[in-house]
Every structure is written in structure tokens, then in C-alpha cells.
Model the fold of this input.
Amino acid sequence: MTRLALIDDHESVRLGLESACARVGGMDVVFSGSTVRDYLAWRTYSASQPADVVVLDLTLGDGSTVTENVTRVIRDGSPVIIHSVADRPSAVREALAAGAAGVISKSSRTDDVLGAIRVVARGEPLDNVEWASAVEGDRAFADAQLSARERDVLRLYAAGLPLKAVAERLGIAYSTAKENITRVRVKYVEVGRPAPTKVDLLRRAMEDGLVDESPDEH
Done:
């Protein structure tokens, strides 16, 4: 029996998967909830073993990042399948870089989702179109290896906020924000994508899907 945890802030998605698992048998949904924090709290209070597979939405509504969620679940002892519309390549790449076993689209047939769960439960990685396109789509983003904090600072700074406002928004010191931007520039230089000006940083952020392309950008 494969023990599953479903983490998605859309209840209808969780209920649909629960119903499918009950129908086919061989899968037991031991947890269904909207955040990784709730899952880990349930693990603590119930003294239950880690789920054999955690099916995780790419973006949750609690403000957590993809990297944080995937890393915490894997550290807790479970492999992760990202179940997503997969329309944000940068977030998909981030999930895979954090160690997710693969991606299955929410537009996939239910049987395909269950098949993916079985593959990962056997300890095998998924080999699917979403994974391939996410990795192939922008190798330079992965090579730059920006940390979660560096991405947050870059996203806000490139979108137009002064560095002081970025620091205030993120609750960090101005010097920390400035140091992050300096490291971002260094990392982009190291992968052959220099960004000496703020306009260059905006271009890099757009290339990597961190900010939307603006119609006012010249």
C-alpha cells in the first residue's frame, strides 16, 4: 500500500485525487491539506511515518516558496511530485533544482497522475515533457544558481523598487539587500550573462521568468 500526502490549496484538486486513489486501490491518502507546514505538524502530532510520496502543488497560498516546500518535505523523508499547471517554467526549474522527483500537469489524465505516483513510489524519477521543457528551456537560470533570497531581491529590484524599499518589503537590512544584488551580478557574469545596470538586471529577470515582461520596457 502506497501512503500518499496531498498538499494543495485547492480542495477540489485534493478531493479528486483522493477519490481516484480510493477507486483504484493500493493507495492510501494519509494526509490532505493546504500547506507543507500543516503536513509537518500532522507528522509531529500523529507520530506517523513520512508519506511514501508527497504530491505537492507548485505554488501554495501561504507565501511559502517552491524551494522551501520541496526541501522541507524531502528533508522529512518523502519524495515529491509537483502537481501543477506547469505554466511557470522558472518555478518548475526551481522545484526540480530543489530535488523534486518530477512534474505532472494538472491537465493530465487521472490515470497518468496515478501512474506517476507509482513510478516515484518505486524510487524512480519521472521522465516527462514538463520536466524536459523546464530544464531545457533555460539552462542559464539553473547555472546561475541564485538562492531563494537572491531571487526575491532581484524580482523586486528589477520590477522597479528602490533597493531601500526592497529591503523594507523583505524585512532585511539595506546592506543585506545590496549584498544580494552584488552576488546576483557576480553569478550572472560567471555564466556569461553580465548585468551591470538595473536595466540589464530587468532583462535577466524577465529571461528567467522572475518578472513579467512589461509593455513599457524600452
The chain has two domains: 2-137, 141-207. The beta strands are 2-7, 27-33, 53-57, 80-84, 102-105. Confidence is low (pLDDT under 50) at residues 214-218. The first strand starts at residue 2 and ends at 7.
